[in-house]
Amino acid sequence: EALTWEEAVGLAEVIVPSIVQKNPDLLKAVGYTIAESKILEGHAPATRGRNLIAYSIIGIRSDHESTTAEEALEKLRVGIDIMIREGSVSHDLKGVIKLITEYKMPTHRCMLVTDDETPIDVANLGHMDYKIRYAISEGVDPIDAIQMATINPARHFNIDHLVGSISPGRYADIVAVSSLDKIDIKFVVANGELYVEDGKLVKDIPLPDYPDWLTNTINVGRELTEADFDIKHSKEKGTAKVRVIGVKDGTLLKDALEAELPIVDYKIQVDPEKDILKIAVIERHKATGNIGLGFVSGFGLKEGAIGTTVAHDNHNISIVGTNNRDMMVAANHLIKIRGGMVVVKDGKILGDLPLPIAGLMSPEPCEKVKEMLENLHKLASDLGCKLTSPFMTLAFTILPAIPAYGITDMGLVDVFQFKLVSPIIS
To answer: Which end of the chain is more exposed for a tag (fewer CB within 10 A), N or C?
Structure first.
């Protein structure tokens, strides 16, 4: 039904394993998309060789997951347009832009895109204007860089008759800049009206009226307990060999790590000194009671816990912590505030950012949200977190469509094998 909507341009984020393994539900959705003459958008991290060819055969039009120019070039050669991504935790532009600056590929099938930006980065760096400046600084011609953020994506999505250029019959969406190399925005016209002048918003943008159900989307059904976060072993004591999700700053790709952890009273313990923490995903839409548990490295917390309800793709309650008590407090607080982000230490709430609209958005002005998020980043750093954007990293850590591991409310996912695996090896 959604594909019949006039606003729908296609099916997004078509994942590789489901195509290669011929998942009937996804293939049916692909068929619906083709029948509606709409486009198939890709999601193909670390996909090359035979899998890439098999994936491209169904008609995938684009991919935004390349992290190197070589990966992007291989995709371009099988007919997939390249979206060059730069987000708050996905710093891929510097590497992938070499597709143009070193491999000398033409730019008409390349686009500049974002992928999850924090209000901090949007305020401090800019949005698409920053991507254009960044591309220019890496050696892309200014006109090419501007086209990669305007007319190229408009043509890709078959909406260049509406947007993408300043020409008759298009919406009057115009950005004026002081110079092509600096992309210093002087004013913005949207749909024929002046919205920004000299860097300041000059027209009010009213908030929509949100229905009550949209601000009550956290449905867990009960308070969580410390026992909900136990990862149990068949042995009473000794050590356990476990699988660990390894995260790194600046990339969405995760490592498949292993670690030896102590067992106490049949429960596997974390090791903050070795940066091995516990991660939990709690289903929050239908009160199923599902809780997925595992281990993660890279956050660096020495004490406490952090949590968020912005967590791809199901946006369940996601917690990383050094102990069950703080993880429990974090999860229960997110339920109480109807979604958001939180930092906890010694059973106490150090700070939060309520996101009551679907557990994903705030009705507050961007500047206030930015300040609250900056405070949470500082609080997490004080607990030892070494990530630039810990909550955004957590949002992608759980994603079961980016290798090597993801974790859902059903448990740990081996992304390459596309199946659930136990966090315990032995």
So the answer is: N
**What integer is the mean pLDDT of 15-19?**
94
One-letter amino acid for residue 235 of the chain: K
Name the segment(s) of the chain with CATH classification 3.20.20.140: 2-201
Q: What percent of the chain has pLDDT over 90?
A: 96
The per-residue pLDDT for range 221-248, each reduced to its tens digit, is 999 999 999 999 999 999 999 999 999 9
Task: Give the closest residue to 147 by CA, choosing from 166, 126, 162, 161.
Answer: 166
Q: pLDDT tens digits for 329-358?
A: 999 999 999 999 999 999 999 999 999 999
Close Cβ partners of 76 (under 8 Å, ≥ 6 residues apart): 82, 99, 105, 109
The continuous run of DSSP H or E covering 376 comes out as helix 366-382
Of 130-144, 198-212, 345-359, give the lowest mean pLDDT range.
198-212
Q: Under 8 Å CB-to-CB from 398, ≥6 apart: which residues?
A: 279, 281, 311, 312, 316, 318, 406, 407, 408
Degrees to nearest 5, angle at CA 309 with 243 and 120: 100
Tell me the one-letter amino acid at 188: V
| Cβ contact 184:178 at 8 Å | yes
Handedness of CA 294, 309, 111, 97 (dihedral sign): negative
Strand 10-15, strand 39-43: pairing: parallel
Q: What are phi and psi of 24, to 5 degrees?
A: -65, -35
pLDDT in the model for residue 207: 86
Statement: residue 213 has pLDDT above 90: yes
**Token pair for 310:** 């912005």
Closest CA to 411 of 397, 424, 421: 421
* pLDDT single digits (tens) 286-314: 999 999 999 999 999 999 999 999 999 99
- Beta-bridge partner residues of 261: 240
Q: How far apart are CA 151 and CA 28, in angstroms?
A: 31
Task: Please state, in angstroms and rounded to a whole number, the distance separating the CA atoms of residues 243 and 226.
Answer: 22
Q: Could you give the 3-state DSSP secondary structure of residue 133? A: helix
Number of other CB atoms surrounding residue 198 within 10 Å: 8
CATH topology (fold) of 2-201: TIM Barrel (3.20.20)
